[in-house]
Design a protein that fits this description.
The chain has 152 residues and is of the alpha/beta class. It has helices at residues 44-55, 57-62, 75-85, 98-103, 144-149, and strands spanning 14-16, 22-24, 32-37, 65-71, 90-93, 106-111, 114-119, 122-126, 132-136. The strands form 3 sheets. It has a 5-stranded mixed sheet with strand order 5-4-3-8-9. A two-stranded antiparallel ribbon has the order 1-2. A hairpin with a 5-residue loop joins strand 8 (122-126) and strand 9.
Length: 152
Amino acid sequence: MRTLKVGDKMPIISQIDESGNVVNLSDYLGKKLVVFFYPKASTPTCTVEACNLRDHYKMLKDSGYEIIGVSADSPLRQSNFKKKHDFPYTLLADEDKRVINAFGVWGEKKFMGRTFDGIHRTTFVVNEKGIIEKVIVKVNSKDHAAQIIGNC
């Protein structure tokens, strides 16, 4: 697994969102962007993380950030997750893992003595030029917005 690092360029890639619309990451050039990867929609920790970003969405927007969430879930599962929790941001349905692999967040994980491949919960903060400014690998799901803004 080769995870992108600070100073790397954001991959310019397209993927469908929770509604089946094509989202081009190139459309976010010129804007600050938060791309957060989570293992599975509607699971407890992923829900806490996504809701924290929802609850601090105005603060993040006021700081100039756009937000995109990414998991390998289907568009339907992403749509249900978004509707249930009223997320104001886009969720990419990366079933083929093109975005996940481009950012380098798919790899071996260990949980409860079991080893498997999966998405590593990681957040990338990208500047207006498409350069990664911050990589958060130890995500605090309960206070993730503060990690992004820099208050942690």
